[in-house]
């Protein structure tokens, strides 16, 4: 055997040895990194929009007609937009590392495998939607779709974090019908609130670029309906906590309680931004909190089904 072949075999063994054969602290750390990068891309995407840098790179996939990177003559907006595009590479690297980390035990933990594959593939989908956003001159509905897809990815990343702390196996409904219905109502109202928030932002001043079109909807009317949906979400989530604690469904209560904390912060930020003429920093915080709220409500719904322990475990 040649030295080159021996080196390759040694490298392959070391790489295989790096790949865990079960959930370890390394797998859990990567799950948290997947979640953190998904939230971070929302924050930086908001920064692009709220600083008017949406067309800092005026074409796609290149930043200019001649180059993939920006140049100093294009100004600060090009750095902000190009920085957000570059962050997708970090997100993809983290997602690929997560896939590799669960590869050896993917058959035993198919849930973890698919929850790592989705963010790895979603980078390309997000890049395409982002490209369409630029090529359509920041169409507010495409921008909204871009954000909504990010919300879904944050929810799935949160589920990945949850699942690396639980065992494999089938799950069954473990709460009463009234509690399940209340959790669903909280989730539905939360989804409506997020969509109305997207439409409200699409009708307001933060277009992402001075020349970008708005959706033409009545901002004040949307703000009112959005607030009603938000308070409805708060009401049903509070009822969820009450019912969950009475049934000792503490995992559901935990995530519903977390959602209430986020909602209170959301309401405070929402009132402040309305009274202060929508300062960009508050709008950006509102966007990130919306993702965290969606994740919390989603996990509360997920926890209505608990894992059925194998017979050997119960024994």
Automatic annotation (TrEMBL):
Membrane topology reported for the UniProt record: Multi-pass membrane protein
Key words, A-Z: Cell membrane, Disulfide bond, Heme biosynthesis, Iron, Membrane, Metal-binding, Oxidoreductase, Transmembrane, Transmembrane helix
Biological classification of the source: Bacteria, Bacillati, Actinomycetota, Actinomycetes, Micrococcales
Source species of the chain: Leucobacter chromiireducens subsp. chromiireducens
Record localization: Membrane
Name the UniProt record assigns to this protein: Heme A synthase
Transmembrane segments: 29-48, 87-105, 112-135, 141-162, 183-204, 224-243, 255-275, 281-302
PANTHER family membership: HEME A SYNTHASE
Main location: membrane
Superkingdom of this protein's organism: Bacteria
Family matches, as InterPro entries: COX15/CtaA_fam, COX15/CtaA_HemeA_synthase
Pathway: Porphyrin-containing compound metabolism
């Amino acid at each position: 055997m040649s030295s080159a072949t021996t080196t390759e075999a040694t490298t392959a063994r070391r790489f295989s040895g790096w790949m865990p054969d079960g959930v370890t602290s390394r797998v859990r750390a990567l799950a948290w990194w997947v979640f953190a990068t998904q939230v971070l891309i929302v924050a930086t995407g908001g920064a692009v929009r709220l600083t008017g840098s949406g067309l800092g790179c005026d074409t796609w996939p290149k930043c200019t007609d001649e180059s993939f990177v920006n140049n100093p003559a294009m100004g600060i907006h090009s750095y902000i937009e190009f920085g957000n595009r570059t962050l997708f590479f970090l997100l993809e690297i983290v997602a690929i590392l997560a896939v590799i980390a669960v590869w050896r035990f993917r058959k035993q933990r198919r849930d973890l495998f698919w929850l790592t594959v989705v963010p790895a593939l979603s980078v390309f989908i997000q890049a395409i939607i982002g490209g369409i956003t630029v090529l359509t001159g920041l169409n507010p509905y495409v921008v909204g779709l871009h954000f909504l897809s990010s919300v879904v990815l944050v929810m799935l990343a949160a589920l990945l974090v949850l699942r690396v702390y639980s065992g494999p196996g089938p799950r069954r409904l473990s709460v009463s019908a009234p509690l399940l219905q209340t959790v669903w109502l909280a989730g539905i109202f939360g989804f409506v609130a997020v969509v109305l928030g997207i439409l409200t932002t699409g009708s307001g001043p933060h277009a992402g670029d001075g020349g970008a079109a708005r959706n033409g909807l009545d901002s004040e009317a949307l703000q009112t309906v959005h607030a009603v949906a938000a308070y409805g979400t708060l009401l049903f989530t509070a009822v969820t906590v009450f019912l969950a604690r009475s049934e000792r469904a503490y995992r559901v209560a935990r995530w519903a309680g977390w959602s209430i904390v986020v909602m209170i912060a959301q309401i405070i930020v929402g009132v402040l931004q309305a009274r202060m003429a929508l300062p960009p920093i508050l709008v950006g915080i509102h966007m990130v909190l919306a993702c965290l709220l969606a994740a919390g409500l989603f996990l509360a719904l997920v926890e209505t089904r608990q894992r059925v322990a194998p017979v050997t475990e119960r024994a």
